[in-house]
Amino acid sequence: MSGSIFDNQEFNKLKERQRLEELKRKAKLQQVKLDKRLNKQKILMGAFLGQVLAGGSEDEKFIQNYFAKNFPEFLTRKSDKELFASMVKSLGGDIGLDKESSKANDQPADQEHDQVEQPDDTEYTDNDIRELFSDQQVDALPPYNEGYRG
Q1: 95 and which of 13, 36, 85, 130 could share a cystine (Cβ 3.0–4.6 Å)?
Q2: How many whole angstroms separate alpha carbon 143 and alpha carbon 133?
Q3: How far apart are CA 105 and CA 18, in angstroms?
Q4: Is 125 exposed, middle or buried (0-12, 13-18, 19+ CB in 10 A)?
Q5: Model confidence, pTM
Q6: Among the listed residues 52, 83, 53, 58, the one whose alpha carbon sits nearest the alpha carbon of residue 68
């Protein structure tokens, strides 16, 4: 005699959970692929902009001036501004580090500030970068290759 109706319900619940986990795994894998694609786009756009900023044509001069004027406003962290200070200065712009240090000197030391200083987290090691761009759950899975051409 076959199992009871309760055994079938438990079996169906188990299969349903397995299907749900498989869908979650596939969604996570797709998100990882999308994130990697977006990062690659950002890197390539940055490389292109770097090449334009090093150029000498009229169009490139316009972009260089625009960059030197507007890029410092885009940067919010002091460490990021320090990173790009020489580039912006070489293009004739002002990164605004002098303004920040004079603001800090103008404010009394015993006064509490509303802003919390963000930690400088730009000192990444190779392991930190690997951890940022990997997912142990996805990496532990066997490769799924159903005609994948990447």
Answers
A1: 85
A2: 17
A3: 60
A4: exposed
A5: 0.51
A6: 53
Backbone angles phi, psi at 116, to 5 degrees: -100, 130
What Rg value do the Cα atoms of the chain yield, rounded?
A: 26
**C-alpha span between 13 and 53 (Å, rounded):** 59
Compute the distance between CA of residue 124 and CA of residue 120 in angstroms, rounded to an integer. Answer: 10
Q: Which helix (H) or strand (E) holds 1?
A: none
Spatial CB neighbours of 121, under 8 Å, sequence gap ≥ 6: none
Q: What end-to-end distance do the CA atoms of the chain give, in Å?
A: 50
Rounded Cα distance between 91 and 65, Å, is 7
pLDDT-derived band at 128, boundaries 50, 70, 90: low
Structure tokens at 144: 């799924």
Q: Judge contact between 148 and 42, C-beta under 8 A.
A: no
Q: Locate tokens 């920040």: which residue?
A: 100
Residue 36, Cβ density class (10 Å: 0-12 exposed, 13-18 middle, ≥19 buried): exposed
Return d(Cα 143, Cα 139) in angstroms, integer. Answer: 9
Which CA distances in Å does 62 have to 53, 65, 66, 109? Answer: 10, 5, 6, 42
